[in-house]
Here is the input.
Amino acid sequence: MVCADMVDHCVENGIDKYWLAPFRLPALTHSAEGCPASSSQLLSGVTQNSRNVEACFPIDGPPGTEVDDYPGLHEFLATKYSPLQDVNKIDAILNDEQLIKKLEKGAKVIELGCGAAHPVKTMATRFPNSSFVASELSESVLSRAKENCKDLANVSYAIVDACDVPDSMADQFDLVILFDVFHDVPYPIKLLQGACKLLKLGGKFIMNEINMFDTVEENKVKCGAQGCIMYMIGTLYCMPTSVKHPRGAGLGPCAGPKVFEDLLKESGLGEIVKRCDEIIGLTFCATKTLEMHEVEPETKKTKSE
Here is the structure.
Protein backbone atom coordinates (compact mmCIF):
# COMPACT_ATOMS: atom_id res chain seq x y z
CA MET A 1 0.00 0.00 0.00
CA VAL A 2 2.89 2.37 0.73
CA CYS A 3 4.55 1.57 -2.61
CA ALA A 4 1.23 2.21 -4.35
CA ASP A 5 0.94 5.62 -2.62
CA MET A 6 -2.26 4.56 -0.89
CA VAL A 7 -0.88 4.48 2.66
CA ASP A 8 1.53 7.13 3.96
CA HIS A 9 4.66 6.13 5.85
CA CYS A 10 7.35 7.81 7.89
CA VAL A 11 9.93 6.90 10.51
CA GLU A 12 9.85 8.74 13.82
CA ASN A 13 12.42 7.99 16.49
CA GLY A 14 13.31 4.77 14.73
CA ILE A 15 9.67 3.58 14.62
CA ASP A 16 7.78 2.97 11.36
CA LYS A 17 4.45 4.76 11.29
CA TYR A 18 1.67 4.24 8.76
CA TRP A 19 -1.58 6.12 8.21
CA LEU A 20 -4.38 6.32 5.70
CA ALA A 21 -5.43 9.81 4.69
CA PRO A 22 -9.25 10.25 4.79
CA PHE A 23 -9.41 11.44 1.17
CA ARG A 24 -7.91 8.11 0.03
CA LEU A 25 -10.47 5.97 1.85
CA PRO A 26 -13.10 5.94 -0.95
CA ALA A 27 -10.54 4.41 -3.34
CA LEU A 28 -10.42 1.31 -1.11
CA THR A 29 -14.17 0.72 -0.99
CA HIS A 30 -16.35 -1.04 -3.54
CA SER A 31 -18.66 1.97 -3.84
CA ALA A 32 -15.99 4.09 -5.50
CA GLU A 33 -15.63 4.52 -9.25
CA GLY A 34 -12.58 2.64 -10.56
CA CYS A 35 -11.39 1.70 -7.07
CA PRO A 36 -8.29 -0.52 -6.71
CA ALA A 37 -10.09 -2.79 -4.23
CA SER A 38 -12.74 -3.58 -6.83
CA SER A 39 -10.13 -4.19 -9.54
CA SER A 40 -8.19 -6.51 -7.24
CA GLN A 41 -11.27 -8.63 -6.59
CA LEU A 42 -11.99 -8.75 -10.32
CA LEU A 43 -8.47 -9.99 -11.06
CA SER A 44 -8.81 -12.60 -8.32
CA GLY A 45 -12.03 -13.80 -9.95
CA VAL A 46 -10.45 -14.37 -13.37
CA THR A 47 -7.08 -15.76 -12.20
CA GLN A 48 -8.68 -18.54 -10.15
CA ASN A 49 -9.12 -20.55 -13.36
CA SER A 50 -5.64 -19.97 -14.82
CA ARG A 51 -4.74 -23.70 -14.74
CA ASN A 52 -7.70 -24.58 -16.94
CA VAL A 53 -6.78 -21.78 -19.35
CA GLU A 54 -3.19 -23.03 -19.46
CA ALA A 55 -4.49 -26.48 -20.38
CA CYS A 56 -6.09 -25.03 -23.53
CA PHE A 57 -2.78 -24.07 -25.16
CA PRO A 58 -1.53 -27.53 -26.24
CA ILE A 59 -2.87 -28.73 -29.60
CA ASP A 60 -4.71 -31.60 -27.92
CA GLY A 61 -6.04 -29.41 -25.09
CA PRO A 62 -9.66 -28.30 -24.61
CA PRO A 63 -10.86 -25.48 -26.89
CA GLY A 64 -11.71 -23.12 -24.04
CA THR A 65 -13.25 -22.77 -20.60
CA GLU A 66 -16.79 -22.64 -19.26
CA VAL A 67 -18.35 -19.59 -17.63
CA ASP A 68 -19.17 -21.80 -14.63
CA ASP A 69 -15.41 -22.38 -14.11
CA TYR A 70 -15.24 -18.93 -12.44
CA PRO A 71 -17.32 -19.29 -9.24
CA GLY A 72 -18.27 -16.03 -7.61
CA LEU A 73 -17.09 -13.84 -10.50
CA HIS A 74 -20.53 -12.91 -11.81
CA GLU A 75 -21.88 -12.40 -8.31
CA PHE A 76 -19.07 -9.89 -7.76
CA LEU A 77 -19.72 -8.17 -11.11
CA ALA A 78 -23.36 -7.76 -10.05
CA THR A 79 -22.23 -5.56 -7.15
CA LYS A 80 -19.35 -3.76 -8.89
CA TYR A 81 -19.73 0.00 -9.30
CA SER A 82 -20.64 1.26 -12.77
CA PRO A 83 -21.36 4.79 -14.02
CA LEU A 84 -24.43 3.18 -15.59
CA GLN A 85 -25.87 3.08 -12.05
CA ASP A 86 -25.91 6.88 -11.90
CA VAL A 87 -29.22 8.37 -13.02
CA ASN A 88 -27.51 11.75 -13.44
CA LYS A 89 -25.17 10.32 -16.12
CA ILE A 90 -27.65 8.39 -18.25
CA ASP A 91 -28.53 11.33 -20.56
CA ALA A 92 -24.85 11.83 -21.35
CA ILE A 93 -24.50 8.12 -22.08
CA LEU A 94 -27.45 8.17 -24.50
CA ASN A 95 -26.22 11.45 -26.07
CA ASP A 96 -29.29 11.77 -28.32
CA GLU A 97 -31.93 14.46 -27.66
CA GLN A 98 -34.58 12.85 -29.86
CA LEU A 99 -34.06 9.46 -28.23
CA ILE A 100 -34.24 10.99 -24.76
CA LYS A 101 -37.52 12.73 -25.65
CA LYS A 102 -38.92 9.46 -26.98
CA LEU A 103 -37.91 7.68 -23.75
CA GLU A 104 -39.50 10.43 -21.67
CA LYS A 105 -42.73 10.06 -23.62
CA GLY A 106 -42.68 6.25 -23.59
CA ALA A 107 -40.64 3.71 -25.56
CA LYS A 108 -39.87 -0.01 -25.49
CA VAL A 109 -36.31 -0.97 -24.53
CA ILE A 110 -34.52 -4.30 -24.15
CA GLU A 111 -31.08 -4.97 -22.69
CA LEU A 112 -29.27 -8.04 -24.02
CA GLY A 113 -26.96 -9.93 -21.65
CA CYS A 114 -28.20 -7.78 -18.79
CA GLY A 115 -26.45 -9.51 -15.85
CA ALA A 116 -27.62 -7.55 -12.80
CA ALA A 117 -29.35 -5.07 -15.16
CA HIS A 118 -27.80 -1.89 -13.78
CA PRO A 119 -28.46 0.05 -17.03
CA VAL A 120 -32.08 -1.12 -17.08
CA LYS A 121 -32.57 -0.10 -13.46
CA THR A 122 -31.03 3.31 -14.07
CA MET A 123 -32.98 3.98 -17.26
CA ALA A 124 -36.27 2.65 -15.85
CA THR A 125 -35.86 5.07 -12.95
CA ARG A 126 -34.98 7.97 -15.25
CA PHE A 127 -37.74 7.20 -17.79
CA PRO A 128 -40.79 5.90 -15.88
CA ASN A 129 -43.08 6.18 -18.95
CA SER A 130 -40.97 3.69 -20.92
CA SER A 131 -41.06 -0.09 -20.56
CA PHE A 132 -37.89 -2.16 -20.21
CA VAL A 133 -37.02 -5.81 -20.71
CA ALA A 134 -33.98 -7.25 -18.95
CA SER A 135 -32.89 -10.35 -20.88
CA GLU A 136 -30.35 -13.11 -20.31
CA LEU A 137 -29.52 -16.59 -21.54
CA SER A 138 -30.45 -18.39 -18.31
CA GLU A 139 -32.80 -18.03 -15.38
CA SER A 140 -29.95 -18.33 -12.90
CA VAL A 141 -28.30 -15.19 -14.28
CA LEU A 142 -31.60 -13.37 -14.80
CA SER A 143 -32.40 -13.82 -11.10
CA ARG A 144 -29.79 -11.14 -10.31
CA ALA A 145 -31.65 -8.66 -12.51
CA LYS A 146 -34.96 -9.54 -10.86
CA GLU A 147 -33.51 -8.88 -7.44
CA ASN A 148 -31.87 -5.62 -8.54
CA CYS A 149 -34.99 -4.24 -10.27
CA LYS A 150 -37.68 -5.72 -8.02
CA ASP A 151 -39.12 -2.32 -7.05
CA LEU A 152 -39.61 -1.11 -10.63
CA ALA A 153 -43.03 -1.72 -12.18
CA ASN A 154 -41.87 -0.81 -15.70
CA VAL A 155 -39.29 -3.63 -15.90
CA SER A 156 -40.04 -7.15 -17.13
CA TYR A 157 -37.75 -10.13 -17.73
CA ALA A 158 -37.13 -12.61 -20.53
CA ILE A 159 -34.84 -15.47 -21.49
CA VAL A 160 -33.50 -14.39 -24.89
CA ASP A 161 -30.77 -15.82 -27.08
CA ALA A 162 -29.86 -12.79 -29.17
CA CYS A 163 -28.26 -15.08 -31.76
CA ASP A 164 -31.62 -16.80 -32.31
CA VAL A 165 -34.38 -14.23 -31.79
CA PRO A 166 -37.89 -15.69 -32.16
CA ASP A 167 -40.15 -14.18 -34.82
CA SER A 168 -42.61 -13.17 -32.08
CA MET A 169 -40.09 -10.59 -30.80
CA ALA A 170 -39.24 -9.09 -34.19
CA ASP A 171 -39.76 -5.34 -34.75
CA GLN A 172 -40.87 -4.77 -31.16
CA PHE A 173 -38.35 -2.34 -29.65
CA ASP A 174 -37.37 1.31 -30.03
CA LEU A 175 -34.00 0.75 -28.37
CA VAL A 176 -31.70 -2.24 -27.84
CA ILE A 177 -28.80 -1.80 -25.41
CA LEU A 178 -25.71 -3.94 -24.89
CA PHE A 179 -23.23 -2.95 -22.18
CA ASP A 180 -19.80 -4.52 -21.62
CA VAL A 181 -20.90 -7.77 -23.30
CA PHE A 182 -20.04 -7.67 -27.00
CA HIS A 183 -16.34 -8.57 -26.60
CA ASP A 184 -17.39 -11.79 -24.79
CA VAL A 185 -19.84 -13.21 -27.33
CA PRO A 186 -18.76 -16.13 -29.54
CA TYR A 187 -20.87 -15.08 -32.54
CA PRO A 188 -20.86 -11.26 -32.74
CA ILE A 189 -22.47 -10.95 -36.19
CA LYS A 190 -25.34 -13.23 -35.20
CA LEU A 191 -25.87 -11.18 -32.05
CA LEU A 192 -25.95 -7.91 -34.00
CA GLN A 193 -28.37 -9.40 -36.50
CA GLY A 194 -30.53 -10.48 -33.57
CA ALA A 195 -30.46 -6.94 -32.19
CA CYS A 196 -31.43 -5.64 -35.61
CA LYS A 197 -34.34 -8.09 -35.73
CA LEU A 198 -35.60 -6.90 -32.35
CA LEU A 199 -35.65 -3.25 -33.46
CA LYS A 200 -38.45 -1.41 -35.17
CA LEU A 201 -37.45 0.30 -38.39
CA GLY A 202 -35.66 3.46 -37.28
CA GLY A 203 -34.94 1.97 -33.84
CA LYS A 204 -31.60 2.56 -32.12
CA PHE A 205 -28.91 0.14 -30.98
CA ILE A 206 -26.45 1.34 -28.32
CA MET A 207 -23.39 -0.71 -27.46
CA ASN A 208 -20.93 0.23 -24.73
CA GLU A 209 -17.45 -1.29 -24.63
CA ILE A 210 -14.13 -0.88 -22.85
CA ASN A 211 -12.18 2.05 -24.28
CA MET A 212 -9.04 0.43 -25.69
CA PHE A 213 -7.10 1.11 -28.90
CA ASP A 214 -6.61 -0.80 -32.15
CA THR A 215 -3.01 -1.98 -31.68
CA VAL A 216 -0.94 -3.53 -28.92
CA GLU A 217 1.56 -0.67 -29.14
CA GLU A 218 -1.13 1.97 -28.64
CA ASN A 219 -2.55 0.10 -25.67
CA LYS A 220 0.91 -0.25 -24.16
CA VAL A 221 1.74 3.47 -24.52
CA LYS A 222 -1.66 5.04 -23.86
CA CYS A 223 -3.33 2.64 -21.41
CA GLY A 224 -0.43 1.59 -19.19
CA ALA A 225 -1.50 -0.57 -16.23
CA GLN A 226 -5.13 -0.51 -17.37
CA GLY A 227 -4.08 -2.08 -20.66
CA CYS A 228 -2.18 -4.80 -18.81
CA ILE A 229 -5.28 -5.58 -16.72
CA MET A 230 -7.54 -5.72 -19.77
CA TYR A 231 -5.21 -8.10 -21.63
CA MET A 232 -5.06 -10.29 -18.53
CA ILE A 233 -8.85 -10.43 -18.15
CA GLY A 234 -9.24 -11.09 -21.87
CA THR A 235 -6.71 -13.92 -21.85
CA LEU A 236 -7.99 -15.61 -18.69
CA TYR A 237 -11.74 -15.16 -19.10
CA CYS A 238 -13.26 -13.37 -22.10
CA MET A 239 -11.45 -15.15 -24.93
CA PRO A 240 -11.36 -18.73 -23.52
CA THR A 241 -15.09 -18.66 -22.69
CA SER A 242 -15.81 -17.40 -26.22
CA VAL A 243 -13.66 -19.88 -28.17
CA LYS A 244 -15.16 -22.73 -26.14
CA HIS A 245 -17.99 -22.52 -28.67
CA PRO A 246 -17.36 -23.93 -32.18
CA ARG A 247 -15.68 -21.21 -34.28
CA GLY A 248 -16.14 -18.72 -31.44
CA ALA A 249 -14.76 -15.27 -32.29
CA GLY A 250 -12.70 -14.78 -29.11
CA LEU A 251 -12.69 -10.99 -29.46
CA GLY A 252 -11.76 -10.02 -25.91
CA PRO A 253 -11.80 -6.50 -24.42
CA CYS A 254 -8.73 -5.38 -26.40
CA ALA A 255 -10.07 -6.24 -29.87
CA GLY A 256 -10.18 -2.52 -30.64
CA PRO A 257 -12.81 -0.04 -31.85
CA LYS A 258 -12.12 -0.72 -35.54
CA VAL A 259 -13.00 -4.40 -35.13
CA PHE A 260 -16.23 -3.49 -33.32
CA GLU A 261 -17.13 -0.88 -35.93
CA ASP A 262 -16.43 -3.24 -38.85
CA LEU A 263 -18.68 -5.88 -37.28
CA LEU A 264 -21.47 -3.33 -36.85
CA LYS A 265 -21.21 -2.38 -40.53
CA GLU A 266 -21.26 -6.04 -41.54
CA SER A 267 -24.41 -6.72 -39.51
CA GLY A 268 -26.73 -4.53 -41.58
CA LEU A 269 -27.17 -1.76 -38.99
CA GLY A 270 -26.62 1.76 -40.35
CA GLU A 271 -25.81 5.34 -39.31
CA ILE A 272 -23.05 4.12 -37.02
CA VAL A 273 -21.66 6.75 -34.63
CA LYS A 274 -18.64 6.12 -32.41
CA ARG A 275 -17.96 8.07 -29.23
CA CYS A 276 -15.20 7.82 -26.61
CA ASP A 277 -15.60 9.07 -23.07
CA GLU A 278 -13.30 8.74 -20.06
CA ILE A 279 -16.23 7.92 -17.78
CA ILE A 280 -18.36 5.56 -19.85
CA GLY A 281 -15.75 4.19 -22.25
CA LEU A 282 -16.34 3.40 -25.92
CA THR A 283 -19.92 3.73 -27.16
CA PHE A 284 -21.43 2.94 -30.54
CA CYS A 285 -24.88 4.00 -31.65
CA ALA A 286 -26.47 2.52 -34.78
CA THR A 287 -29.87 2.64 -36.45
CA LYS A 288 -32.04 0.05 -38.16
CA THR A 289 -32.40 1.80 -41.49
CA LEU A 290 -33.20 -1.24 -43.65
CA GLU A 291 -34.85 -4.59 -43.09
CA MET A 292 -32.32 -7.05 -41.70
CA HIS A 293 -30.55 -9.14 -44.32
CA GLU A 294 -28.81 -12.43 -43.71
CA VAL A 295 -25.02 -12.50 -43.38
CA GLU A 296 -23.31 -15.83 -42.80
CA PRO A 297 -21.09 -15.17 -39.73
CA GLU A 298 -18.67 -17.99 -40.45
CA THR A 299 -17.67 -16.57 -43.83
CA LYS A 300 -15.98 -13.46 -42.42
CA LYS A 301 -13.00 -13.44 -40.07
CA THR A 302 -12.37 -10.88 -37.36
CA LYS A 303 -9.06 -9.29 -36.48
CA SER A 304 -8.72 -11.51 -33.40
CA GLU A 305 -8.93 -14.66 -35.53
Notes: Residues 293-305 have pLDDT under 50 and may be disordered. The first helix runs from residue 36 to 47.
